[in-house]
Amino acid sequence: MTGGGRFAAKRNGRGEVGDPWSPAVEFGPGVDPRLQPGQGHAAPPSAGLPWIPQSGWTAAPSWRRTWVSRAILLGILVVQALLSLRLRNTAFEDEALYLYVGHLQLDQFLDGTPGSLGFTASFSGSPVLYPVLAATVESIFGLAGARALSLVFMLGATVLLYSLTRLLFNERAGLCAAAAFATTQSTLFLGNFATYDAAAIFLLALAAWIVVRTAPNSAILACLLAAPVAALAVAVKYAALMFLPTVVMLAALAVFPHRGWGGLVLRSILLPAVTAAILAGALALAGDNYLHAVRVTTTARAVGNADPLELLLDCLEWGGGFLALALLGTVSYARREGMGEVPGLRQAANRGRRWRLALGLLLCGTALLAPAYQMHLHTGVSLHKHVGYGLLFAAPMAGVGMSRLVGAHFRYPQLAILIWVTLLTLGMTQSQNRYHAWADSTRMIATLESQLKPGGRYLVEASSVPRYYLRAETTADQWASTYAMTYTDRTGRRLSGERAYRAAIGAAYFDVIVLDRTVTRELDDKLVQQLGTNGNYRLLAKLPYRNSHGSGYYQIWVKR
Fold this sequence. Notes:
about 550 residues, alpha/beta, five-stranded mixed β-sheet, 18 helices
């Protein structure tokens, strides 16, 4: 390069620019000829210094970069799988209930025997979807197989999250988002937990990926492919309905840089309309029981007595650091779009500051939905799982935040390492604590099995657990729990609540009673006092247990 900016082109054999026989190409003063069109960059102060591009992530993805990113993603998935599979415990009562009902549904489909026994009206998801799928896998591979199915769903959600973030930003932000999401307690916990949640999160991730992936598509109706996926997510887990507005708004924002206001308005109308039509048709076919279940378990759930402040502190413990990282990404991205976070910036000229801020607030705000709703209801039931739904949507901005901290050319990789190790440590510790929030029931099940008799009746605090493990020897109507019960005494009176339990014990209705003082502690204490003075029962065993909340013991009473 001369002082006037003349670049001596080299011969390439085709007489094109770069051929010494063609005229030299003139460049303005201080402009490096190696820049691509539109990448104006001032020359360095010293002509002797090598030229360095602004960011190594602004170029189009290369074959090498693509495969390196995929290799790193594979490593993230391996870490996520290992951290989930390290969790060990017997079945939780929700797992046992869903798998048991899934087997009942399978029996109904295959043999024509009675099915869900009224569970439809109280389930938080359709009993003919996930429970049947999980029970099918469990019948072949056992409880570990059903939990591995959840791991597949959670790994799939991480892959979709990476791809979605890469489409919105780039590979580096995608890898940071995947790495952060893969270490949260909800991700690790749900990856080895046989309930609806992992499947619902996967379907929400798939719907979000579809609307972002189809945004540049010339066929604007392609986004409607997400409608049946979103509807299926709600059918699998009714609480997923809370996150459908985010999917719709994400669809509108994603298409705006490519199709402007027309595409935004069209998607905002068509996608929710088609999704609502699918859900309405499904409810019409399913019947009133499903609508009642949606109200009871989701939209009109009973108010609890939990302290909202304690729930807030729990949410901050499980996702506060993650959300702070996502907010950092939002602020940084809104202030400055550069540094390679958006490789296709010049092809999407409508990505202004307002668009960037709207995207960040939408994704981060979604993380607050489940905590805010459960704080409103004063209930902490399943909150540690529901937090993960929102973190899935906040993860792209967390990836941007981590990427910005690293800086161009990986200037500060130690910051990303420190953040990720912190998230990893918290996720491992918290998921381990949550996975041992219930006691190991191995000894209790073995003792109870030794007391089974034909036609026997059994009262167990969490009856779904022994009912699942002992389903080959018993039937559903032989079991009762301390959560709720109705009992008709000898005079024909129909009793409920504490009066029902006291009358049943007084009449020696149950053959075996198992109490552990974990959920219905006050009732348990009253029943133990009655059992101690009732000559019809004797204490067979007190089996100690320990969980993350402390220690206790199973009291097993048998009829004399």
